[in-house]
Structure formats: C-alpha cells, structure tokens
Amino acid sequence: MTTRLTIAYAAPGHRLVPTAGPTRNMLCLADALSELADVTLVFRRAPEPVAGGLRVLAIEPGVWDDDAADDVAQRGLNPIEHLAYMRRLRTFAESQGHAFDVVLEKGWRLSGTLCAAFTRLGVPGVLVENDVRPWWEPIRSPRTLVKYGSHLVADAVSRRHTRQVPIIAETDELKTMLIQRGAVADRVEVIGLGVDHRRFHARDQADARRALGIDVTVPVFVYVGAMDKYHDLAPVIAGLATASPDTELHVVGDGNGRAECERLAAGLGTAVRFHGRVPHASVPTYIATADACIAAYREHTFVGDGVPFSTLKVPEYMACGRAVVGNAAGQARALLEHGISACLFPNDVESWSRFFADVPSREHLAEMGRAAAKAAEVLTWERTAARYFDVCQAVAATRGRRP
Question: Global pTM?
C-alpha cells in the first residue's frame, strides 16, 4: 500500500476569509489536490470553518476581534510585531514538522519564512508566488519613512528565501521578475490558476436580471472585486459619461477606494450601482446580468508598469460566458483575443471614453462572451492540482537533504 503524500498549504500572511480571492484560490486548489494527497490548509488566523471537510490549522489559534473582512492578516504590523510573528512561525513549524512531507507557502510580505522554518527540520518547502510587492508610496513623512525602512528589511528577507527554495509562479511575467530578484531559473515552475466550472458557467441573462431587479433591456457592465491600490475604477466611471444614457455599471465588492468611486459617480451623474460585498454563491448571478465584465488594474503600482499576478476574476468572467473589457492581467490575458473574446486597452479615462462612445452591440458582446467561455474551458483546478502534485512529489523526494 502506497502512503499518501501529506501537504501543508499555508498562507502565513492571511486570515481565512472565504469571500476573499486568496482564500478562494487556496480552497479550490486544496479541494482538487486532496484527491491526490492529504492536504491541510494553514492560515495565520482561521475565524471560521470551511465547507467540504478540509482540515484547517491556525498559526495563531483563538478568537480575534480584528476585521475578518480583510484577509491580509499582517497589514499594519510594526517591525517588532513582525519579529514576534517570525518566532511564532518557528514555534509552529517545530510543533508540526512531524506531520508533513512538504510545505507550500503562499507568498506574503516575508515570503519564504515558514518554508525556512520547516526546512531546518528536514521538511522541504515550495514558495507559491503571485506578486513581487514593490514599494510605491511617496515618502513624505517620518512615518512613511519608517514604513519604507520596514519594507526594505522585509524585501531583503524575501529575496534571500527566493534564492533558496523552489518556487511556483502563477504567471510567466512573474517568473521573469522573480529571476531578476535572484531566483534560480530552473527552480521556478509556472502553474496558473484554475476555474470552478461547477459554479462559474453561462447562465440566462434575463433570469439573472429579473432575480436582481435589473432592467432586461439596458446595456449592463459588471465589475467584481476589490477597489484598492491594485484596482482602479475611476477611469471606468469617468469614461462612462460618454455612454448612452441607459448604460449601467454594477460594482460588486468593496475596498478602501469605494468612497472615492462613489463620490466620482455621484458628481458625474453616471449610472453606477455599488452592491458591496455579496455572498460568493451569488457572484455568478451578478456576472450573468452583464453584457460584458470589467478588468481595471492600476498598472503603475506594479514593477515595470505591468500586471504580473494571476487573477481569479477574469477567468471566472470568461467561464460565465462574458466578454472582458479593460486591461486584463496574468494568465487570462494570454487566453483573450482582442476583438474576439475581449476589448483590451489601457486603464485610462481616454481609452474608456472611446470605448463607451462606440460600444459593440449587445449581440456582438454576447458572441464575444461565447468565445471567452470556449477559451476558459482549459482552466480547471484539477489540471492545476495535478501539476502542483508533481512538484510536491519531486520536492518531497529531497526530504532530509539540506538545500
């Protein structure tokens, strides 16, 4: 009888928030990977259980009063608190080192710290990266200067670990950036995200609009996701002023940029409805109301003005049979064809104004949506999990060897 591989899939920088992208990514992958191995999910904090019987551990167990709507569990920590948490990671590894054959660590501010703690115990690890986290905030105060100093220290830590562990990068662009930061090229494997096709698939538009009280006759565009430093809806809202008066933009999600977007929409008098956070099970219904779905990334916050990370929203739009409009990112951009399944252009007011002034017909957008759904068929979590399993098997075979 062959012993199943035991894998810890850890996110030291995140708390478990089922509606947040990083958690959904991990839950979907872990569910598929559990068909091949014994998988345990690890978060810094896990304030709620997950469906499906997946085993979950908390690095800091207990009941916490902090905002569980924000999944980035280490945001705002000062350097002293980060040092204390690094010690906590070593303690966690010592208590769990006997339980796993390999550790997958999802990238965060101190990427690779947990892998290093397990490696000291002879348990090999793999870093799963989806970003390079550059500094982009202007230094205009002593407080910002201190934050910048903390960023430099964290960046040095993550760079060192990047050179020492095998890495799974979620896009080719990110692999290039990681190699520039010191990663060994032949130790970086590119494995993209999948799509949960059981949930995200084409649905009847009229039924979805009636369910949500949206006029079945008007052009509708939908954005799903955060409003934060990585995503910028302001150019979309400003460009909407050139659209036909009956055109509507529906925004599903939240973030610290929402208030600014609401003020802009109110000032311009554009037809934008902000729905806030909705249950994850309801997201496909909102997508189904759309004639096309919006991608709006703030490119200047990324290294080289590119968007290196992979994103769930765009493949999910595609799987739901909706055309994509905007500056799509990561693996999805390679699947999209301008004029066939998407309308791709920079995320600026001029580009959005031109688009909304001459929008393709609803029939044409529906045809593009069908092409998008076809292109998304190759993206499955089962396919992604099989490739992760191959990496884990290869790395587990090195157990006990020093890097």
Answer: 0.85
Estimate to the nearest angstrom the gap between the alpha carbon of 284 and the chain centroid: 17
**Residues of the chain by 3-state class (helix, strand, coil), percent to 5:** 40, 15, 40
Least confident interval from 178-182, 263-267, 394-398? 178-182
The CATH topology of domain 205-376 is Rossmann fold (3.40.50)
Q: Angle formed by the axes of helices 142-162 and 79-96, to 10°?
A: 30
Backbone φ and ψ of 175, nearest 5°: -55, -45
Output the pLDDT for position 162: 82
Confidence of residue 305 (pLDDT cuts 50, 70, 90): very low
User: How is domain 6-194+380-396 classified at the architecture level of CATH?
Assistant: 3-Layer(aba) Sandwich (3.40)
> Where are the CATH 3.40.50.2000 domain residues in the chain?
6-194+380-396, 205-376
How high is the pLDDT of residue 148?
74
What does the DSSP assignment read for 326-343? E---HHHHHH--BTTTEE
